[in-house]
Structure formats: structure tokens, C-alpha cells
From TrEMBL, chain A:
Protein name as it appears in the record: Iron complex transport system substrate-binding protein
Similarity-based family: Belongs to the bacterial solute-binding protein 8 family.
Signal sequence coordinates: 1-32
InterPro entries, alphabetized: ABC_transptr_periplasmic_BD, Bact_iron-sidero_bind
Cellular compartment(s): Cell envelope
Record GO biological process: iron coordination entity transport
TrEMBL record, chain B:
Transmembrane stretches, start-end: 66-83, 95-114, 120-140, 152-172, 243-271, 283-305, 312-331
GO biological process: siderophore-iron import into cell
GO CC, alphabetical: plasma membrane
Keyword NADP: no
GO MF, one example: transmembrane transporter activity
Organism whose genome encodes this protein: Pseudomonas duriflava
Keywords: Cell membrane, Membrane, Transmembrane, Transmembrane helix, Transport
UniProt protein name: Iron complex transport system permease protein
């Protein structure tokens, strides 16, 4: 009977109708706690979530971080870039978690197997995937850009999880820590975040997560990083233009753990060796999974750890 | 072809043109860059150290790159001419037949097994190129394919994409960044350690020396196997040693700059256009045309996406692909 609807879930409304029929079929024991329903504004329209979901699947690192910060242990997530598991910085917090795909592609069967009651997805989730995922559970897709304030998507996820209080508390902790740390850092210093590769470096946009935090701490960024408002990072910068990435501090992000090796490799390049930050020994190798892919309250604390270790005095 | 009386003049003129272009391409490579050091400043920096920024860019960044480009250009150009003569196929090209991909694949495998020494990479790349060469030889022995240039290229293209796919797979599982990966798939001259140009010189020199005794037998081979045998040559032996020679040249070039496609196709094509199909003329000229193509392509690669750079393999592919189509669509494929 409902087969035709399954085949053509053209609008969110139909998806929603399907969802409500699924919810209605849930045994009445769990029905009690799903009493209060709330409307969450997503990129694909308003999605209704009820109660505090407990079977959560998170399809972005940002959502994973948010769920963990809010005290929810998700059942499944996607692997981080260049790895088959979750980012190193959350590894000890996730417990046993199923990997249901990569950032680019979700395995719908694996998600289905987990029987989620809420799916938190990344802002760039394709519509075709959304339509399928939303048949399984209410799917939250923030309508944010990578250069937006990172708290926007986190707050939206928290709203869907029904755990705004927890996230607000983590914001407060962060704000306090940032204020304290900022007081210990000389203002106006230029800090740039880049990924090294032998043909030249890739400069991360200063509007991304790590850049937003550095800005809050009172750092400035190189003009080139500032100009990257539409894209998360630059192309491979010509070695002749390496000075455009220079600053007082240089955070060198590597996706594999051998950060020191990447630094040694970079130092071999004369154009790198003559940067001011390198000459002044102010290059810090940092975890690329955290600095270029991570986002969320937990990631923020870890990045502040990195900065505090070396920059503050 | 034109009458034999004017031939020496044509050859002389071609040499003059190519020598001029070599000088121009070297100058372009030294003076033009993606940065904000203008050609004028760069030219001054060539003989005065007053402008330390320009001096650094020209001498430390552009000069090693130019040297490496010239070296790689010579190796790939000569390898293209030899490979085309040995297979008697005007489409044969180390990049298209899987020789470069073989070298690249071998290096990727060595790196993922834990090697980091540049010197080891060189030997490994030559071995990989050799394996690619023997596959080419094997395929030419297959009935029907050896005599049909286009089918040989199709086999080579299939082999190349397979090797590239495996290389990509290894690099992916090795958790390397996409950028690092790109080098072993497309090739680039930027950011290679300064020593690369010097450490690859012996390989290129060895390949070129091995080439010398092969020129006459290869020229004889162009007349057909029977004639070559009648003239006292051994076609099979000639072919084998030619492929070893190609492997050394391509392996060295790939270890130094990654796989740069189409240069081995463009260079013999241009050389033939200038001085006719005789390998005794094209081979020497290819030693000039190779660097010209590489250096101009590299200069273009710095200008297209300022302040970034394209890998040179992208530029050579843009020049090479139309030439490949032109050769295939030509009224008749030149017999070599």
C-alpha cells in the first residue's frame, strides 16, 4: 500500500509522514518518553524530533563531537579523512562505535541496521542521500557553510538531541578558557595554519573552525588565508609565494601522525627554511585530523590545549 | 620528403631554431614565476646579488628546477624517439605505454614498504620502468597488435590506468594526503630537493651513452626486419637493448619528477616534422626539443593559476593529447 510513497519520496513532507508512521509503530513503552515534539529548522525544511533520542547516528565529525560533548554516545559514525576510524582526538571517548561510511558516502544498510531514532548529517549532504536517510529516522542537516560560526551547526545538533543545556555549559567553559588564555597571549600576532606537501604548502582558510578559535584568542591571519571565504583551503601554493603564508606562528597540520617527519621534510626546502616563523623556531606541528577536519566543543578544547602548550606565557 | 640536396640545410636550420628556443626556454624558466618577483628583477638578480629576495628565488628555486626540467626533458625526449623506433610505432610513448606508470608504481610500492631514500627510489623506478618496457615488448609480439599502432596504445592505456589505480589504492591505504599522491600520478618539477637534478644526471648520462651504439641498428630496423638482418644486425637484440635504454631514461626521469605524460610523444613528432623520420637526425634533435617542451610547459604551469601552480603533467597533457589525435587521424601513420 505504502509502496508508491516509498519509491517517490519527493518532498520532506512525505518523508515526515513516513517517519510518523514508523514512530506510531514503536511499542508503547518507549512512546511515553517521546511525548514532547519539537520542530528543528534544517537545510531541507522543518524536521520534527520528539523526546531525547538515544539511538543516534552521526554522519559528520562535527556531529560526533557535538553528541559526545552533550553526553550522548552515538551508535554509528563516518570515518575521518585518510583513516578507517574516528579522529584520534575522540578515540578514547567513543567506546564501541560502528563505522557506517566515509565523509563522502554513507552506507545506508549499515545505518538501517543500527535502527537509529535520530541522524545528524553534515551540511553538504546530497539531497538524494537525505531522502533515503530521512526514511530511516529524522535527519538533521544544518544549513551552514564551512566558514560560518562553528557554534551554529553545533547548536542545531544539540537542539535535535534535546540537550541544549549541556552544550550551553560547554560553550561557557570554552568562553572562560578562551578569555583566560587570550590574556596570556600578546595581541596582534599573525598565526597561519597550513598543510605541508613537497610541491608547496596548502594554506587553510582563516574562517574555518581552527581559524575562528585563533581569532577569538586575538591572533591575526595572513591576508591570503583571510581571502579564502568560499573554500576551506587554498591550492598548492607556489614556493615562490611561500612568504604569503608566513606569520609569527605557523601551525603545520599533518594527517598522519608523523608530524615531525613532515616538518623535517619541509625544513629541507630552502623557501620554507627562510620563513620568519621557521627562523624564529615558531613552527608547531599539530594533528591535521583535529586542526583541519575537526569541529565542536571537544575539538575546541584540544586545539586550545595545543595553543596553550606553546604560545602562551 | 623534400629533395636530398636541401636536406643538410633543413637540418642546419632546425638546429639553429632549436638552439635558439633552448636559450629562450631556459631564460623564460629563470625569469618568469608565480611569485611577485618580476622578470626584470629576476634578470638583474642573475648577475647581481643586491636584491636578495629575487636572487634567492632565481638561484634557489628556479635554477634547480630549470636544471631538473632540462634533464627530464632530454631523458623523456630521447626515450620517446628510441621507443618509437624500437616498436616502429609513431604513437609509442613511455607515458602511454605504461613505462612511466610502471616506474611510478614501483616507487609508490617501495615508499609504502618503508623506503625513504631517494637513491633507492631511483633503482626501483628503473626496475619498474623495465617491467613496463618488457610488457610493451611482449604485447608487440602478439599477433595483430604489434602491427597496429593504435591497438598497441590501447593496450598501453589499459595497462597504465591499471597501474595508476593500484598506485592510488596503495597511497590511499597509506593515509597520505591527496596532494602527496598527486605527485606520483601526474608529476611535477616544483619543490623537488635541489640535489635531485644532480643525482639524476648519472642515470640520464648512462641512458644516453647506452643509446649511442643503438643508433645504426635502429636506423636499419626502420627498413624492415629482413633488411636489418641482411645488413648484419640482430633486430631482437637491438629491440631488447633499446628498451633497457628507455627504461633507464624513463625510470630516472620518473624518480626525479614523477610521471610526465606525452613528452615522449610530442618530441619525436616535432623532430620528425623538422628533419624527417631518420633516427640518426631526430635523436640528436630530440635532446634539444625535450628540454624546450618541458621548460615552456613548466613556465606555463606557473602562470595559469597564480599564486598557485599546476603540476607540469597537466600542461603536457593539454599539449600532447591534440598531437596524439592528429597523429592517429593523419592520412597515413608514418612508418618507422
Amino acid at each position: 500500500m505504502a509502496l508508491a510513497t516509498f519509491n517517490f519520496p519527493r518532498t520532506w513532507l512525505r518523508a515526515f509522514m513516513l517517519f510518523t508512521s514508523v514512530v506510531a509503530s514503536v511499542p508503547s513503552a518507549s512512546w511515553a518518553q517521546t511525548a514532547e515534539a519539537r520542530a528543528v529548522e534544517t537545510a531541507f525544511g522543518t524536521v520534527t524530533v520528539t523526546g531525547t533520542p538515544s539511538r543516534v547516528v552521526v554522519l559528520s565529525e562535527n556531529a560526533l563531537d557535538t553528541a559526545l560533548s552533550a553526553g550522548v554516545k552515538p551508535l554509528g559514525t563516518v570515518s575521518t579523512r585518510g583513516s578507517t576510524g574516528v579522529s584520534r582526538y575522540v578515540q578514547d571517548k567513543v567506546g564501541t562505535i560502528a563505522i557506517v561510511g566515509t565523509a563522502r558516502e554513507t552506507n545506508l544498510e549499515s545505518v538501517f541496521k543500527l535502527q537509529p531514532d535520530l541522524i545528524l548529517a553534515a551540511p553538504d549532504l546530497p539531497k538524494a542521500q537525505y531522502e533515503k536517510l530521512s526514511l530511516l529516522a529524522p535527519t538533521i542537516v544544518p544549513s551552514t557553510a564551512v566558514t560560518d560560526d562553528w557554534r551554529k551547526s553545533v547548536s542545531l545538533y544539540a537542539e535535535a538531541l534535546g540537550r541544549q543545556e549541556e552544550i550551553k555549559a560547554s560553550y561557557q567553559q570554552l568562553d572562560q578558557r578562551i578569555a583566560a588564555l587570550k590574556a596570556r597571549i600578546a595581541p596582534g600576532q599573525v598565526a597561519s595554519v597550513l598543510r605541508w606537501n613537497p610541491q608547496g604548502p596548502i594554506l587553510m582558510s582563516s574562517h574555518l573552525f581552527a581559524g575562528q578559535l585563533l581569532q577569538q584568542l586575538g591572533f591575526k591571519s595572513p591576508a591570503l588565508a583571510e581571502s579564502l571565504t568560499q573554500r576551506p583551503h587554498s591550492d598548492i601554493l607556489s614556493l615562490e609565494n611561500l612568504h604569503q603564508a608566513d606569520g609569527d606562528w605557523l601551525f603545520l597540520a599533518t594527517l598522519n601522525p608523523e608530524g615531525e617527519q613532515a616538518l623535517a621534510q619541509a625544513r629541507n626546502q630552502p623557501a620554507f627554511a627562510r620563513l620568519n616563523a621557521v627562523k624564529n623556531n615558531k613552527v608547531i606541528t599539530v594533528d591535521g585530523q583535529l586542526w583541519s577536519s575537526g569541529a565542536g566543543p571537544l575539538a575546541a578544547q584540544k586545539i586550545l590545549d595545543d595553543v596553550e602548550k606553546v604560545v602562551a606565557h | 620528403m623534400s629533395s636530398s640536396a636541401s636536406r643538410p640545410q633543413v637540418v642546419k636550420r632546425s638546429w639553429l631554431i632549436c638552439l635558439t628556443l633552448v636559450v629562450l626556454s631556459v631564460l623564460a624558466s629563470l625569469l618568469i614565476g608565480a611569485g611577485d618577483v618580476s622578470p626584470g628583477r629576476s634578470a638583474q638578480a642573475l648577475w647581481s646579488g643586491a636584491d636578495s629576495e629575487a636572487r634567492f628565488i632565481v638561484m634557489e628555486l628556479r635554477w634547480p628546477r630549470t636544471l631538473l626540467g632540462a634533464m627530464v626533458g632530454m631523458a623523456l625526449g630521447a626515450a620517446g624517439v628510441i621507443l618509437q623506433s624500437a616498436t616502429r610505432n609513431p604513437l609509442a610513448e613511455p607515458g602511454l605505454l605504461g613505462v612511466s606508470a610502471g616506474a611510478s608504481f614501483a616507487v609508490v610500492l617501495a615508499i609504502s614498504l618503508g623506503s625513504s631514500a631517494a637513491t633507492l627510489n631511483l633503482g626501483v623506478a628503473v626496475a619498474g620502468a623495465l617491467a613496463g618496457c618488457f610488457l610493451v615488448l611482449l604485447v608487440t609480439q602478439l599477433r595483430g597488435i604489434g602491427s597496429d599502432p593504435v591497438r598497441l596504445i590501447l593496450v598501453g592505456a589499459a595497462f597504465t590506468s591499471m597501474l595508476m589505480a593500484i598506485s592510488t589504492l596503495i597511497l590511499l591505504s597509506d593515509q597520505r594526503s591527496a596532494d602527496e599522491m598527486r605527485f606520483w600520478v601526474i608529476g611535477a618539477l616544483a619543490g623537488r630537493p635541489t640535489e635531485t637534478a644532480y643525482s639524476s644526471a648519472p642515470g640520464v648520462l648512462l641512458g644516453l651513452l647506452l643509446m649511442l651504439p643503438l643508433i645504426r641498428p635502429l636506423a636499419a630496423l626502420a627498413l624492415g626486419e629482413r633488411v636489418a638482418t641482411g645488413l648484419g644486425h640482430h633486430p631482437q637484440l637491438t629491440r631488447m637493448s633499446a628498451l633497457v635504454c628507455v627504461a633507464i631514461l624513463v625510470g630516472t626521469a620518473t624518480a626525479a619528477a614523477g610521471p610526465i605524460a606525452f613528452v615522449g610523444l610530442i618530441v619525436p613528432f616535432v623532430a620528425r616534422r623538422l628533419v624527417g623520420p631518420d633516427i640518426r637526425r631526430t635523436l640528436w634533435l630530440s635532446l634539444l626539443i625535450g628540454p624546450i617542451i618541458i621548460l615552456f610547459a613548466d613556465t606555463i604551469s606557473r602562470l595559469v593559476v597564480k599564486p598557485y601552480e599546476l603540476p607540469i603533467g597537466v600542461v603536457t597533457a593539454f599539449i600532447g593529447a591534440p598531437i596524439l589525435i592528429a597523429v592517429v587521424r593523419g592520412h597515413r601513420l608514418p612508418t618507422l
